[in-house]
């Protein structure tokens, strides 16, 4: 492909050479330069790709894309653009044949609920016979294949690469979590989402290397509504008017509290046999009831958001209802087991706010005892430990404190901080430093009617101690304990 074809949708200036040159592929990591490629000089937090331009040319790069003028290596085309990050997205889209044009693309952003809602949408689509790819916190899913991902939203080159793999694998739909960093760093530039879902907004990801303040964070989040054809927004969010400011898409809303395009009411907490979840009524031309197999009001909101997105897609309603009643999200309010004898849940809650929300939610299901198994990560804020200890002491009948990812700290030092928070309450607790043993005992020594919440790691499949990662899954350990206790 000619360089000019790669750059067809970008404004650019040729500083040296010609754009009428054959290019094999785009490269943005100087360690991966191959003969005949175009190397994009991207500025990162710790390294400026412009400093590697000469080395890239020496390694065989046929062209360089830059943001500022550099000494032009002999025989190498140099093209200047406003943003090399943005250029990477467009160049990658061209390189992989614009795969987004062959998919129905659904992007989700917001502070909370992205992962769960994405899984709900994927479950609905697949139950309705639509082969669906997904990118997000839990990885990249292409059919049955799962590829681990470092970022919620991968680099734009990888986004385009994975979309091409999805199309080639027969996928017709894509569900993608879109982080504020993903929007700010142009990882989802180069195509327009068919649907953009905005779940909610609250202060998060504010600090060095992320966003300077809430206004900046919100500003990038709402960019999704300028990068999609149809935007679907939570009408109940306190920042609704700020979220939709400057949108360029067709706008739709969903709500439990206001008039909206998709409205629901009468949320109920249900515990029936093997179903622990919520139910609610959807007000429509033909009203219907939804049952969701995930506990909590927030999961009812997530389900309504999923319905609001998929209503446009001409799906059989009975299949949509079936999907939501059977949805399961790894590590997000994941019900490992439920019966009259015992309920076991695994969740990612790893700070005081999420822990408090989770335990208050589980209280609504009226367990005989609420037992929480948790620790705190090492080399992180000690304040979190004090706060989580206090929340456990106030809201759980029994706290079993144990190791999480202690990293380079001593487990006993972390547990001592948690006990400082517990000491502010009268809550009962047991200290079991080994997480495997803590999970085992929480289940084997449970009482009839107990609800056990194992929190902090959720979907993670490793434990990091003394800087070394080893395989560890809360769900797997809970399942082993349930088998050992003959609880079915």
3D structure, described in words:
The protein has 488 residues and is of the alpha/beta class. The chain has three domains: 3-95, Udp-n-acetylmuramoylalanyl-d-glutamate--2,6- Diaminopimelate Ligase, Chain: A, domain 1 (3-Layer(aba) Sandwich); 99-325, Mur-like, catalytic domain (UDP-N-acetylmuramoyl-L-alanine:D-glutamate ligase); 334-484, Protein-Tyrosine Phosphatase, Chain A (Alpha-Beta Complex). The protein has helices at residues 3-6, 53-58, 84-95, 114-127, 156-168, 180-184, 214-221, 240-243, 297-310, 317-325, 352-363, 382-395, 411-422, 435-444, 474-484, and strands at 13-16, 26-27, 38-40, 63-66, 77-80, 104-109, 132-136, 139-142, 145-147, 173-177, 193-198, 228-234, 250-255, 262-272, 275-283, 288-292, 334-338, 342-347, 369-374, 398-401, 428-431, 450-455, 462-465, 468-471. An eleven-stranded mixed sheet has the order 9-8-7-10-6-11-12-13-14-15-16, sandwiched between helices. The protein has a six-stranded mixed sheet with strand order 17-18-22-19-20-21, with helices on both faces. Strands 1-5-4-3-2 form a five-stranded mixed sheet. Helix 11 runs parallel beside helix 12 (382-395). The model has no long low-confidence stretch (mean pLDDT 94).
What is the fourth-level CATH superfamily of the largest domain?
Answer: Mur-like, catalytic domain
Query: How helical, in percent, are the residues?
Result: 25-40%
Distance between the termini: 59 Å
Tell me the number of strands. Answer: 24
3D shape: globular
The CATH class name of the largest domain reads Alpha Beta
């Amino acid at each position: 492909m000619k360089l000019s074809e790669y750059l067809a949708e970008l404004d650019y200036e040729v500083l040296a050479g010609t754009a009428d040159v054959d290019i094999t592929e785009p490269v943005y990591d100087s360690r991966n330069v191959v003969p005949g490629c175009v190397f994009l000089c991207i500025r990162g937090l710790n390294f400026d790709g412009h400093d590697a331009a000469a080395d890239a040319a020496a390694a065989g790069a046929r062209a360089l894309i830059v943001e500022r003028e550099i000494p032009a290596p002999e025989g190498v085309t140099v093209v200047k653009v406003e943003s090399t990050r943005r250029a990477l997205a467009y160049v990658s889209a061209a390189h992989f044949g614009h795969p987004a044009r062959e998919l129905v693309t659904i992007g989700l952003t917001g502070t909370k609920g992205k992962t769960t809602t994405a899984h709900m949408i994927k479950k609905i689509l697949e139950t309705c016979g639509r082969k669906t790819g997904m990118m997000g916190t839990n990885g990249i899913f292409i059919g049955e294949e799962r590829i681990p991902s470092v970022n919620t939203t991968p680099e734009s080159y990888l986004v385009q690469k994975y979309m091409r793999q999805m199309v080639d694998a027969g996928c017709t739909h894509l569900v993608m979590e879109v982080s504020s960093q993903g929007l700010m760093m142009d990882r989802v530039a180069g195509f327009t989402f068919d649907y953009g879902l905005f779940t909610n907004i609250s202060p998060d990801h504010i600090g060095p290397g992320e966003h300077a303040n809430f206004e900046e964070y919100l500003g990038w989040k709402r960019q999704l509504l300028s990068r999609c054809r149809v935007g679907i927004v939570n009408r109940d969010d306190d920042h609704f008017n700020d979220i939709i400011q400057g949108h360029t898409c067709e706008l739709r809303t969903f709500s439990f509290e206001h008039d909206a395009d998709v409205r629901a009411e009468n949320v109920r907490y249900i515990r029936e046999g093997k179903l622990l979840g919520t139910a609610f009524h959807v007000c429509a031309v033909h009203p219907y009831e939804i049952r969701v197999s995930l506990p909590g009001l927030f999961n009812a909101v997530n389900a309504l958001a999923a319905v609001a997105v998929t209503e446009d897609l001409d799906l059989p309603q009975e299949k949509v209802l079936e999907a939501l009643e059977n949805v399961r999200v790894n590590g997000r309010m994941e019900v490992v087991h439920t019966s009259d004898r015992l309920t076991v849940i695994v969740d990612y809650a790893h700070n005081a706010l999420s822990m408090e929300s989770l335990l208050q939610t589980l209280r609504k299901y009226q367990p005989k005892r609420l037992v929480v198994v948790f620790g705190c990560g090492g080399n992180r804020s000690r304040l979190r430990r004090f706060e989580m200890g206090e929340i456990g002491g106030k809201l759980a009948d029994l706290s079993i404190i144990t190791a999480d990812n202690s990293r380079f700290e001593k487990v006993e030092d972390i547990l001592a901080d948690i006990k400082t928070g517990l000491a502010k309450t009268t809550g009962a607790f047991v200290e079991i430093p080994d997480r495997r043993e803590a999970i085992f005992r929480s289940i084997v020594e449970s009482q009839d009617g107990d609800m056990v919440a194992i929190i902090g790691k959720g979907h993670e499949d490793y434990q990091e101690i003394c800087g070394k990662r080893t395989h560890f899954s809360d769900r797997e350990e809970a399942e082993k304990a349930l088998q050992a206790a003959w609880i079915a």
